[in-house]
Amino acid sequence: MIKKVPRYLLTFFNTSGAIAVERFCKEREIPGRLIPVPREISASCGLSWAVLQEEKDCLELVEREFAEEIEGKWMLDV
Predict the structure, then answer these.
(1) Which residue from 36, 40, 59, 63 has the highest number of Cβ atoms inside 10 Å of its Cβ?
(2) Cβ neighbours around 52 below 10 Å, total
């Protein structure tokens, strides 16, 4: 069984927002990856950007830059 670890998740209103965040983060070497939204939560597009809990401070720029695209912010064991 895969061990779950605490992760900070950003969910999005649409897929284009999720893809834009992925591109933005990769260009700036901001940690994280796109994953399907966990069952425990619901989101419009079904994708979320996930980072380890201890790396969540790296997302301040992302949250400011994409405030209109982000549907929710979560801390879950994924």
Answers:
(1) 59
(2) 14
Amino acid at 43: A
pTM metric for this prediction = 0.91
Q: Any idea where the domains of the chain sit in the sequence?
A: 6-77
Q: What average pLDDT does range 22-36 have in this prediction?
A: 97
Architecture per CATH, 6-77: 2-Layer Sandwich (3.30)
More confident: 1 or 12 = 12
